[in-house]
Please model this.
Amino acid sequence: MKRIKTPFGARYGSTLRKRYAELIQEYRKPKSCPRCEKVGGIKRIKIGIWYCKKCGAKFTGAAFALSSDIGRAIRRMPVKEIAQKPNEISGNNI
Ligand SMILES: [Zn+2]
Model:
């Protein structure tokens, strides 16, 4: 894997720098809008809130990406099942 430059130099430890690099790589990727499907033009307004400059759609997602593993798993579940197993979902280490 190509090493991603971080602004930290030798500070904060390699594990944290790697984790940061992983997040920022995902964050900088051009993203496609879930409504108009155009690539690029997606901006993050606040943590977990995203905005499409082209069609004006405002939607929720993960902090640094449009969706997380746990978010995708929950989206596939029926609402009834989410209500019945709240501990199982929050116990998931994602
Ligand atoms: Zn859009």
The helical segments are 14-28, 69-76, 79-84, 86-90. Residues 3 and 21 are 8 Å apart (CA to CA).
